[in-house]
Amino acid sequence: MTKIVHFFYTYLFYLTAKLSLASNVSISSTATIDVLPDGCQNLLQSFANETAKFTLCVVTNARPITVCEKCVNEFNQVFKRYEEIQKLHNNDSEVDCRAVLTNIDRLQVVYASYNYVLDMWEKASCKLCLNGTVFNDKTKGVMIRGDNLDECISKHINNTKLSNSSLCADCKQYYINLTDYYNMYKNENTFCMDVVDLINTTQSDWSYKFKCHESNYDSEWILLVISAIVLLTPVLFYFINWLVSQERSNLLLSQNRWHQGFTNNAASTSGYVVIS
């Protein structure tokens, strides 16, 4: 958060410094504009103010992420001012205000600032959640279920008569309603970062903060059995191999003794003389 705030103030200082040079910048013609016409200067200042408001709104709503919900009006104002700049042309003056404001210098500060706002809005995927300036029906469904869960949790936290152990049991159905509803639509690329962050935070708190996660013992036993089989397979292999080698050794030893006895008998019988 410290880095974000530092970036915010650095960006505002940079933008203010650049915009203050607008009255002294050369345009494509050989003429130099010392003072912008009132209409141009006022619109430039308005655009700078709205961009600063949007940046401040994004920073202050970064944790938890509520950018799409809280900053939609600021975004629309930046968009509106930029559109006004694009349509602006002062017929009573030799100065083309649109060309001046969008080509203040080689850095194109106005254009870059507008792209910054658009990029931030796109990263948050706010279009997926909004219908105009309000949440669409699917997003409202998530938020309502999230509010119900928060209300249940807050009641247990703030009421000393209710034990913390009962929180999991009493609020479990609200948690299931929220996660099931989200899982039903999440693969449809439906939700913005406000919703995704809400779900991630809720699941993390439910499991680690409130210790309400229920272990799936069946799955754990299956995993343990599979792990045991995998670990015992090499041991079993070498044990079977050892047994087979022992049987082969005994067989060879038995054959050698039989062969030796047969040879000795043959040698002894060859020493007799047969008389006819």
UniProtKB/TrEMBL annotation:
Q: Which residues cross the membrane?
A: 221-244
Q: Name one GO cellular component term.
A: cytosol
- Decide whether keyword Membrane is in the record: yes
Q: Does the keyword Phosphoprotein apply?
A: no
One of this protein's Pfam families, by short name?
OSTMP1
Q: Show which residues constitute the signal peptide.
A: 1-22
Q: Which UniProt keywords apply?
A: Membrane, Signal, Transmembrane, Transmembrane helix
Which InterPro entries does the entry link to? Osteopetrosis-assoc_TM_1
What the entry lists under PANTHER family is as follows: OSTEOPETROSIS ASSOCIATED TRANSMEMBRANE PROTEIN 1, OSTEOPETROSIS-ASSOCIATED TRANSMEMBRANE PROTEIN 1
Name used for this protein in its record: Osteopetrosis-associated transmembrane protein 1
Q: Which organism is it from?
A: Aphis gossypii
